Amino acid sequence: MPDLLLEIYTEEIPSSIQKPQGEQLKSRVMDELKECKLEFGQSTSYSTPQRTILLIEDLPWQSAQQTIETRGPRVGAPEEAIDGFLKSKSRKIDDLETRTVGKAEYYFLTEVVPGSAVNDILQKSISFALTRMSLPKSMFWGSGRTKWVRPIQSLLGILFDKEKTEIVPFQFAGLQAGNTTCGHRFMASGELSIDSFTDYQSKLLNAFVDIDPKSRKDRILESIQSEINKGYPNLELVHDEELLEEIVGLVEWPVPIIGEIGESFQNLPEEVLKTTIKVHQKYLSVRNTNKDKITNFYAVANFLALDGGKSIIKGNQRVLASRLSDAQFFLNEDLNSLPSNLVEITEVLTKVRYSFGLGTQKDRVERIDSLAKRIAPIFSVKEKDASMAARLSKFDLVTNMVREFPELQGVMGKYYGLSKGIEPRICEAIEDHYLPAKASDNVPENPISITVGLADRINHLVGFFLRKEIPTGLGDPNALRRAALGIIRLILDNKINGFGLREIITFSVEEHFRVGNESNSNSQIELKTKTEEKEKVVEDIINFILRRYSIYLVEQGYDSEIIDACIFVPDNDDLFKIFRRIETLASFLPTTFGTDLLHLEKRISKILLTLDSGQHGKSSEITSAPIYPSLFSSSHEVSLFEKYNLTLDMVSRKEVDDLLGKLHEVSKLRTEIDNFFDNVMIGVDDQAVKNNRLNLLANIHNMLTSDFDLNLITNH
Questions:
Q1: What pLDDT was estimated at residue 475?
Q2: Any idea what DSSP says for residue 572?
Q3: CA dist 651 to 5, 24, 661, Å?
Q4: Among 274, 307, 390, 459, who pairs with 369 as Cys (CB 3.0-4.6 Å)?
Q5: Do the Cβ atoms of 246 and 237 come closer than 8 Å?
Q6: pLDDT tens-digit series, residues 239-253
């Protein structure tokens, strides 16, 4: 069976777009093949700065014959309808057969469509798939109207097996695909004629192009480690996966070259060195283990230089020295100009806008301060420590270093704080309250850092919700989803129990309104929410966090139904409590007790839904409906009532956190419930007896679902 090889050769594509573009190309082409009912095997995408490549294995040469059945008019329908059907299919009445559908007879036409050459199908399918691509930062070029990430220079498309190779001459962007490509733009010349994927890989490797990102990454690491092992035993690479992935997308033939950082710059704060080397120059940092400093770097060139890279690294060192000179200047300027009492500099934050309608950074810091002091007792943090960390949390935004290197906010705040004698725990919070900023970040454990981090993020969410600037679709210009995820991770990773979001968010909403009302007419604080909408905003923010929480837990491998069953209940603003519910339910449901519990819930909820007419809605109180034993007329009622009271007593004796024990006790009601349903008629004419039986079931149901909405569990 033949394989399909596609290559789209363009001008250089940004590193961050290469992998998503390759995956989208694979997805679009596969969708078209499925639409054409073509079977195929494994599909793999590859990418380089100038190539997006797709290999689809085990296609047929010929599509399968298809049998198509079309239902026509009913037998006995007007002649015009039958004639119209025959005319549309270019058939005679003898070509039709009749079949019974329901209670009527219909004409049917069965047509056998022979298979066609897959090459012909692919030409249309690939062209259509490419027109459906949705790519970021797309552009027009030349006189054409095709949009792509970068101008397309050539297309390659071949269908091949061991016996033969066919060109798939699909058309796109005014070009027609052929069977040729080209090698490295600096180290190879001429076209390369391709007849298979193996031939493609081999010829490109000989032409200094490695199409596999993983292979290029391995080349970089192996080359660096080999050089260090041979000539620099006291050096070690500072591993940075994010930077390495970016560099892999910048080169087709990676050639690492080691450079040296001038000795005068080696005493700069390590984060300053790493940021300058990474963000501005895309170099990999190298630590000297003897000096415990970053003393070198690796630049990754995209070609083999004739002089072994001496000229390249000389230029790189010169450029880096210039950047580090700037950093040294900004650092000295800041250290000389910062007041000894850093709190004084927060007044300068009045000149820095936070966001339109939400005031200045000073306004922001004051709100964070109020929130931090409110949160501090939960973590046994002294109010003065929380306040100091909050008030200094953004002061470095007005420093020269952070203006030039925004990536260093927090980092420089800690450094400057230590230089001015601020307590180390406070300085640590100035840096760490930004964490986690991305998925790979660790979560701070310092209680002051957690306090300020939660206060900052809650203030951020509340402000933009009050401004009604809520993310829709994929857009999130104010990073509200990231703020919500930060709150989630701070609470979960630190196992923070008892942190009620509703109270803290409500306090923050009130603070925004208080400050807004006290501000003068020239205030930059303009909320778009009315006073009577405050409660709704609080619930909207909690639901926003819970939706992000649900997505995060699904990504961590938890069952979505179990998550929903634990979230959509009263008392759902304690994220760690919800997490404990999820873990408890996930471990309990697969057991026989779990089966009994779900059985109980389904039987009771069904009868309540059928007979109750909404009188017994879900209640957070597990004994909300009155029960009168004097109305019992069956031993099975009495038995269930006694077992219910015994279970209720056992549940109330359990520790508040013993969710598993409670579930075990409640699940033991199954025998009495089944006997009750099998022997007691609930929907009797005597309304008082009927209501009494429904009340008993409603109370048991509330006990079943006081911590979980088991009605949402359908697949267990």
A1: 83
A2: -
A3: 64, 53, 8
A4: 390
A5: no
A6: 999 999 999 999 999
CB 286 within 8 A of CB 295: yes
Tell me how far apart the alpha carbons of residues 670 and 672 are, in angstroms, rounded to a whole number. Answer: 6
The whole-angstrom separation of Cα 713 and Cα 716 is 7
b/e per residue 104-129 (b: at least 16 CB within 10 A): eebbebeeeeeeeebbebbbebbbbb
In degrees, rounded to 5, the angle at the alpha carbon of residue 272 between the alpha carbons of residues 271 and 275 is 80
Domain ranges of the chain: 3-62+117-206, 71-113, 213-337, 346-557, 585-712
Instruction: Provide CB contacts within 8 A for 184, sequence distance 6+.
Output: 207, 208, 209, 252, 253, 303
CB 274 within 8 Å of CB 238: yes
List phi, psi (to 5°) of 290.
Answer: -70, -40
Distance of CA 118 to the CA centre of its chain: 38
Indicate the CATH number for domain 585-712.
1.10.730
- pTM of the prediction? 0.79
Pull the structure tokens for residue 634: 């069956």
- Sorted by sequence, the CB contacts under 8 Å of residue 555 that are 6+ apart come out as none
Range 540-547 contact pairs with CB under 8 angstroms and sequence separation of 24 or more = 540/465, 540/470, 541/461, 541/462, 541/465, 541/501, 541/505, 542/501, 542/502, 542/505, 542/572, 542/573, 544/461, 544/465, 544/470, 544/480, 544/484, 545/461, 545/484, 545/487, 545/488, 545/501, 545/575, 546/572
Phi-psi region of 286 (alpha: psi -120 to 50; beta: other; left: phi over 0): beta
Q: What confidence score (pLDDT) does residue 619 get?
A: 43
Measuring CA to CA, which residue among 456, 538, 466, 531 is closest to residue 500? 538
Kindly state the greatest CA–CA separation across the chain: 101
Q: Which residue has the tokens 């219910």?
A: 644
Quick one: pLDDT band at residue 588, thresholds 50, 70, 90?
Answer: very high
- Range 534-545 average pLDDT: 95
